[in-house]
Design brief:
The complex is a heterodimer. By secondary structure, chain A is an alpha+beta fold. Helices cover 47% and strands 17% of the residues of chain A. Chain A is globular. By secondary structure, chain B is α/β, with parallel strands linked by helices. The two termini of chain B are 34 Å apart. The mean pLDDT of chain B is 88. Classes of the chains: A alpha+beta, B alpha/beta. Chain A: InterPro entries: Peptidase_M1_dom, Peptidase_M4/M1_CTD_sf.
């Protein structure tokens, strides 16, 4: 019987067109993902990662089980529900089928179909990679050689992760559909699954939660991500994800859950036609005969009103009616409930950075609240569909349709009904946000900001998608087709930009307020936002009118007939509205177009790339041409914040430091920011030899060639002008309040290599040769210039900045004078020592906090209200100056200033005695508990101050490994300042994050991982690996030795220059020599391990036991396993012989029950398995090898194990 | 006021001709529309109720063109469709009140009185605060009637209203309708001949989209006077009789069929003459003319 039902279910599905449509959708999606450039699933491949690597195939397989949710619910949810919907349940249940046969037959029958449907992705991927090369279009991997076909690479993930995921989902949907007998509840299940996944994403922000997240994610996506987080590209390309460890546990847990659900379904399912409700028994309504005899009732005559005001009353009443109806829906309540749970969980991980929280300023809370968007979208799509179909679903449509209510009132009522719900939810979100703020002890509620954001951006989003969904439902005239079309619309919207349709006029509901900055508010984003929203609202207005005209009223559903009826409905007022919305749509569209494409230049991504390609092809020949260097900068900058304009006028002195006479000067204007050079003159005259206007590149022929050692004065005026608004990427440097730009905006000398396309995959597309990211260490051109470029070595600097009266303007140098003139404020800065050619221009409405360190003036320019961490920053400045001054070299300036700038970017940057610092990072960081939370403002300040030495006192050559001199050493400097001011546990926590970031970074390397000494602008190496390595170095050879090496290096290499002592800039190689000099021979190998190679360890503690010795001390026996690997640039590893000094440590417990190091000593380890016997005085708690994670180890958690007393073993 | 239907035609997209050249004039009072299931009664009623389009032809209600001035027609319309549902989680008084608003009864005091009286009238007063989802078929049907009577409609269309009502409810409902019938056009469709017989001054018999007969029920009975013959036969003979005579109905009475035959004289001498009633008219029109 079971087989019979299974076969029946199977053949039922076999004869349904939907089954084939599902198959086709998945097939096309996956086939496109494997063979086209436009569609990617799960981020795709690129760089080193093979498109058909086992890693990518597994990821795609798992991600597709997500996409399949929709189909899964449709197939599994209705397996039993169908009988109820078709009212055939009585027929089924009165046969002799047993409950088990019926349920399991239906389940497995549907499940087989589901697996078959899902196998389309498997077939599509195999086929795609086999035939991709022979298709008429080019796959993204056209230029690459890919792995040879291996069936198991497709089959293993399909079975291990694909089918298990299907089974888990299938059982949940099956149970939901079977037990609730309500279709909408099935979707709610899907939402719960997705939320579980979301929550796991939220909690993994804390490193400690990774295990939990691995287990909780029902789709095993997080598990997969966490399991493979440190896999190198080489591993990803060759290794399948084995069913072991967390992967296995996750599967076991969730498959068991699924089986339990099926069992529960079996026992809860009643083989009865009438379900008893889960919540309360439905009471049959008893008929009571009324005391009033119906015959005697006289129906009163009433007034029937018509006209516009009546319609408004009807509209309002009906809106309320619908709103109340939706709010009572159990699925609706479930969606909200789940959303709120998601938000509550998320609120615990609010704004994390290295495990430290941000202050819940309203702007951050708003960002957090936008996580609810997903739930809004679900509500919008489902309930707009539900409401459009409401009357027809319950079959009251003929009654309601015959009522004397205009068509627009009915549709508007549904719209307003939803609006009422949205407004309610938004108010609820505001309350949630305020509560969140209160719970963090933050009381500066900016209610107006909440309203300004949620009731503009958010509500526009809700309106646009609701009306779109109304329209789609009206046109499709089938609820599920409507849902599916909305789904397709979202997908299509995603791929639209990948296919080159990027203009906001074509991207539905485009227009963004940008991120809110306490400094700049919503700034200039408001204008473009307003226009874009006007455009889209007018667009959906048109859709609304069409929906009114074509909406089904009565029984006519044929489009032809609806068009005929539509003409009748096109009354004068409706026609007027239709025409005016259409006019508004068209005219706002034109206005947007005028702004984005006429006032400003609009280039698609591809067009932009083409310009870059042309630039490279045309001008590359000038790359290494000899040019003079800037030695003097003297400019007057006039900033007009309210117009977002500025001009810069003045002169550079250019000196010929080359051994040749120079007669041609190549000037590169900053075309990226659309700078306009009004004039540019050379003293003594010059004529334009050639002008590449497209590229802003001009060749000047000097009237009098520049002799060796001679200088020429170049005067110019350049202008930045903001006109209207742009399509995308609007300038956030020059803003109303918080302008921050640097000398990139000014004319520069020679070919600009930065403008070339860097990404190798993109370069291949344009048939450009692959490009090295940096020059080799022995390249003379690289050695002759610093990281700040070849325009200058050191400059004399003077600048006058004018700005609006309320603002303070700042540039490097000492303030000479400030004055007011023509209602503007002027600041004159001058630097008294040479500095690097890298300067910032800043203007904002600032408060100033002042302090002093010896005779150095310390100043923080901050936005009012952001006082939280000023003291920390000042403290950090003082500690840093103390440490750096004592250990490296004296500070070269008499002042240090930190300036807050808007959060459009989140970094801090070190200019000469000037550090712009984003409001988004240090200023609103919250350090609740100095015992537990890392002090990020303190650390970032120390790092940036470190750059005053590492970068400004000694600038490195622009070759591979350069950042090891500036970034890594600043990182080290900050670490040392931190080390002396915080507890070791916190230090260890910080380093753990650094290690995690390094290991994650290398697993995503797209080109090649370099050893630290050859780093090529790879942040995960020069910052994160740098921290770990430098910390270990000072641990191995001693802090004072490292400092001595740095001190000696600095004093030898101070202010290097192309015309200085060494005629070049230093490289990492130079610094390593100083480190080597301080390292004893027995440890020399660590220099090679840390800096010159990629070396990884696998240290693991197998067993820890202890016994009490007669003398009241304890003997701890620690069994460990150690391995050492060397990796190449793709992450291929080979084991190498061990002869390493590694820490062995034992922890006890202090009075508060916290871990306390009892013993820590380095042992030379030369074989894989080792046992250490250590005597400690106190009772050991745990012990292990490399317990503080000084070495680079992918499994840093297994280094330490709890100690067990020997007798108890 | 008069409802005039002229040359009305409607063919569905699946080729079914729902209305074929229908011409009817309906005056104030009760009008019965008799016909078997699938005859096109509901199609005609939906078309009058502005819910369906006609391919050709016109319908006028007084000065109004029903097919184009839908909004105006709906103001004076009370419509009870053949099958309908309700919002399950809304109670009767709320929904009725809501529908009253949509009918344009915006004066809340008047509306309250009206809704309450209609609930009394349909004997739903005691159950007014119960969710409609829990209503029995009869209660639901009465609710449907209550909503159709909102705002004193001038044109009431009730499609198979007595289906699913028990005899007592049916009587009450028919009484209610008859109270209204005097200065209102009430169109009642049914396949139960008794309904028409008891209530309607005017009627039409409808089958396969065509009007087979229109007129007064008494005239109709008059027409067949003396032409209806009855006989009790054996089950096995039924086919034989069907072949040889204009059989208009066969009913089992006590286990054996009793047949009615249309004939100007006693068909073969074995029949007995009876006084035809409206049911015989109905079957005559439907089967005899087929």
């Amino acid at each position: 019987m079971f087989l019979e039902i299974l076969r029946f279910e199977f053949s039922y599905r076999k004869n349904r067109a939907a089954t084939y449509i599902y198959f086709a959708i998945l097939f096309v999606l996956c086939f496109a993902a494997t063979t086209s450039k436009y569609v990617t699933i799960g981020g795709g491949s690129g760089g080193q990662l093979q498109p058909n690597s086992p890693y990518t195939l597994t990821l795609m397989t798992i991600i597709m089980t997500f996409a399949v949710t929709f189909i899964c619910s449709a197939i599994m949810g209705v397996a039993v529900l169908r009988d109820f919907e078709n009212k055939t349940e009585s027929l089924m249940f009165t046969t002799t089928i047993s409950k088990f046969d019926y349920l399991m037959g239906r389940f497995f029958g549907s499940f087989c179909v589901l697996v078959l449907v899902y196998s389309s992705i498997w077939i599509a991927m195999m086929l795609g990679f086999s035939v991709g090369r022979f298709l008429p279009w080019d796959p993204s991997w056209k230029e690459k050689t890919i792995h040879v076909f291996d069936m198991w690479h497709y089959f293993q993930p399909f079975i291990f992760y694909g089918i298990t995921n299907l089974f888990i989902q299938a059982s949940i949907y099956f149970a939901a559909g079977t037990l609730s007998r309500k279709p909408l509840l099935i979707y709610t299940q899907g939402i719960i699954l997705i939320v579980l996944y979301e929550i796991t994403g939220t909690i993994t922000q804390d490193l400690e939660n990774k295990t939990l997240a691995s287990l909780v994610d029902p789709f095993a996506v997080r598990t997969f991500q966490i399991y493979t987080q440190y896999w190198s590209p080489a591993q990803k390309n060759t290794m399948l994800i084995p069913m072991e460890g967390m992967m296995l546990w996750n599967r076991v847990i969730w498959c068991s859950v699924a089986v339990l659900i099926l069992i529960a379904t079996y026992y809860s399912f009643s083989f009865n036609v009438v379900t008893s409700s889960w919540f309360k028994k439905k009471k049959a309504i008893k008929e009571v005969v009324s005391k009033i005899r119906p015959e005697s009732v006289v129906i009163p005559v009433v007034h029937q009103f018509t006209g516009f005001s009546t319609h408004l009353t009807q509209l309002w009443k009906q809106s309320l009616f619908y709103a109340q109806m939706v709010v009572k829906e159990i699925p609706f309540i479930a969606i909200i409930f789940v959303g709120v749970v998601d938000m509550i969980v998320g609120s615990f991980y609010f704004g994390e950075m290295y495990g430290t929280s941000s202050y819940p300023i309203t702007a951050n809370v708003l960002g957090f609240l936008s996580e609810f968007d997903l739930f809004f979208l679900i509500i919008v799509v489902f309930y707009s569909g539900e409401l459009i179909w409401r009357e027809r679903t319950v079959n009251i449509n003929l009654i309601v349709d015959a009522l004397p209510v205009p068509d627009w009132v009915s549709l508007f009522a549904k719209f307003f009904g939803l609006m009422l719900i949205y407004v309610g939810l938004l108010l609820f979100l505001i309350l949630f946000g305020v509560t969140l703020q209160v719970s963090h002890g933050y009381f500066n509620f900016e209610l107006s900001l909440y309203f300004k954001t949620l009731f503009t951006d958010e509500i526009a989003f809700l309106i646009a998608f609701t009306v779109l969904s109304f329209f789609v439902q009206t046109i499709a005239n089938n609820k599920f087709v409507g849902f599916a079309l909305m789904f397709v619309f979202f997908i299509a919207n995603l791929f639209l930009s990948a296919m080159g349709v990027e203009h906001p006029l074509f991207s539905f509901n485009s227009g963004s307020l940008g991120s809110y900055s306490d400094m700049n508010k919503y700034g200039h984003f408001v204008a473009s936002f307003t226009w874009m929203k006007l455009y889209w609202l007018a667009f959906v207005g048109v859709l609304f009118v069409i929906s009114v005209l074509l909406g089904v009223r009565g029984t006519e559903v044929l489009m032809k007939t609806r068009l005929k009826i539509g003409q009748l409905r096109l009354t004068k007022p409706i026609l007027t509205i239709a025409i005016s919305t259409l006019l508004l749509f068209v005219s706002s569209g034109f206005y947007v177009y005028y702004n984005t494409n006429k006032l400003n230049k609009y280039l698609t991504k591809e067009e932009q790339e083409k310009v870059q390609v042309d630039y490279e092809k045309t001008l590359k020949k000038y790359e290494n041409a000899l040019q003079p260097r800037i030695v003097d900068v003297n400019l007057k900058v006039e900033i007009y914040p309210e117009d977002r304009d500025f001009t810069a006028e003045g002169y550079f002195w250019l000196k010929n430091k080359t051994p040749k006479v120079l007669s041609e000067i190549y000037i590169q204007n900053d075309v990226v920011h659309n700078m306009k050079i009004e004039y540019l003159r050379f003293e003594g005259g010059a004529k334009i030899k050639k002008n590449y206007e497209n590229f802003g590149f001009t060749i000047y022929q000097l009237a009098k060639p520049l002799a060796v050692g001679d200088s020429v004065k170049m005067s110019f005026k350049t202008k930045f002008e903001t006109k209207g608004f742009v399509a995308s990427g609007s300038n956030t440097n020059v803003v109303y309040n918080g302008t921050f730009f640097n000398n990139n905006y000014f004319p520069s000398l020679g070919y600009s290599e930065d403008f070339e396309i860097g990404d190798d995959d993109t370069r291949k597309k344009y048939k450009l040769p692959e490009k090295e990211r940096m020059l080799e260490q022995n390249n003379p051109i690289g050695l002759s210039q610093s990281l700040f470029g070849d325009d200058a070595d050191y400059i004399r600097f003077e600048m006058i900045i004018g700005t609006s009266k309320e603002q303070t303007a700042i540039a490097p140098g000492y303030l000479q004078k400030t004055w007011e003139e023509q209602n503007r404020k002027y600041f004159h800065y001058k630097m008294d020592v040479p500095m690097v050619n890298f300067y910032s221009i800043i203007s904002a409405d600032y408060q100033i906090k002042r302090a002093k360190w010896h005779d150095v003036n310390l100043e923080i320019y901050y936005n009012k209200g952001h006082e939280y961490n000023l003291d920390k920053m000042i403290e950090s400045m003082k500690s840093s100056f103390d440490y750096y001054g004592k250990n490296f070299a004296p500070y070269q300036y008499r002042q240090m200033r930190i300036m807050e700038f808007p959060r459009y970017a989140s970094f801090a940057q070190s200019f000469a005695n000037t550090v712009p610092f984003s409001e988004g990072i240090g200023f609103i960081q919250k350090i609740d508990d100095p015992e537990k939370d890392l002090d990020m403002p303190f650390y970032v300040t120390a790092h940036e101050l470190g750059h005053q030495w590492w970068g400004h006192q000694v600038a490195e050559a622009r070759v591979k490994g350069n950042a090891m001199l500036s970034e890594t050493q600043s990182q080290y400097s900050a670490l040392m300042v931190m080390k002396h001011s915080i507890k070791p546990e916190l230090m260890q926590k910080f380093l753990k994050y650094e290690l995690d970031k390094y290991l994650t970074g290398r697993s995503r390397e797209s080109k090649k991982e370099q050893p630290l000494a050859l780093v090529e602008s790879q942040g995960y190496i020069h910052y994160n690996k740098g921290s770990v390595v430098m910390y270990a170095l000072q641990d191995y050879i001693g802090e004072d030795k490292v400092n001595k090496a740095l001190h000696d290096f600095l004093s030898d290499w101070k202010y290097p220059s192309s015309d200085g002592k060494y005629k070049r800039y230093p490289t990492s190689h130079d610094l390593i020599k100083y480190f080597k000099a301080e390292t004893p021979d027995s440890l020399k190998y660590i220099i090679n391990d840390m800096f010159e190679t990629i070396t990884l360890f696998e240290n693991k503690t197998d067993k820890v036991s202890y016994k009490l010795l007669p003398n009241k001390s304890y003997e701890v026996s620690i069994k460990t396993i150690s391995e050492k690997f060397r990796a190449d640039s793709s992450g291929n590893e080979k084991p190498i012989a061990l002869k390493d000094w590694i820490d062995v440590g034992v922890y006890g417990e202090d009075k508060d029950g916290k871990d306390k190091l009892l013993f820590l000593q380095k042992y030379q380890v030369s074989k894989k398995d080792n046992t250490f016997k250590i005597i400690v005085k106190e009772k050991p708690k745990k012990a292990g090898i490399d317990p503080i994670n000084k070495l680079i180890d992918r499994h840093s958690d297994d280094n330490v194990k709890t100690a067990v007393e020997e007798e108890k073993l | 006021m008069q409802l005039t239907i002229t040359n009305l035609n409607k063919t569905y997209s699946n080729g079914v001709q729902a209305l074929q050249n229908v011409n009817l004039t309906i005056n104030q009072g009760m009008f019965g529309l008799l016909g078997p299931n699938g005859a096109g009664k509901s199609s005609l009623m939906r078309t009058i109720a502005t819910l369906q389009e006609a391919d050709t032809g016109t319908i006028t209600l007084g000065d109004l063109n029903v097919l184009t001035q839908k909004e105006e027609v709906r103001k004076t319309l009370g419509y009870l469709p053949q099958e309908f549902g309700v919002y399950p989680k809304v109670d009767a008084i709320t929904l009725l009140n809501h529908l009253a608003v949509l009918k344009g009864i915006t004066n809340s005091k008047e509306r309250k009185e009206l809704v309450e009286s209609l609930l009394h009238k349909t004997n739903l007063w005691e159950a007014r605060k119960k969710n409609l989802g829990g209503y029995s078929g009869g209660m639901k049907q009465r609710f449907g009637i209550a909503q159709a009577l909102l705002a004193s409609p001038k044109l009431i269309i009730v499609d198979e209203p007595t289906a699913g009502l028990d005899p007592a409810e049916r009587n009450r409902f028919l009484n209610l309708l008859s109270e209204l019938g005097e200065n209102t056009i009430v169109i009642l469709s049914t396949h139960i001949v008794e309904d028409v017989k008891e209530l309607c001054q005017d009627m039409a018999v409808f089958n396969k989209g065509q009007v087979l007969y229109k007129g007064n029920p008494f005239d109709a009975i008059q027409e067949i006077n003396g032409k209806i013959w009855r006989k009790r036969i054996q089950k096995a003979e039924l086919e034989e009789y069907k072949k040889n005579f204009t059989l208009i109905s066969d009913k089992l009475i006590g286990g054996s069929p009793v047949i009615h035959v249309l004939s100007d004289g006693n068909p073969d001498g074995t029949f007995e003459a009876i006084n035809g009633d409206l049911e015989d008219v109905y079957f005559t029109k439907i089967f005899a003319t087929a």
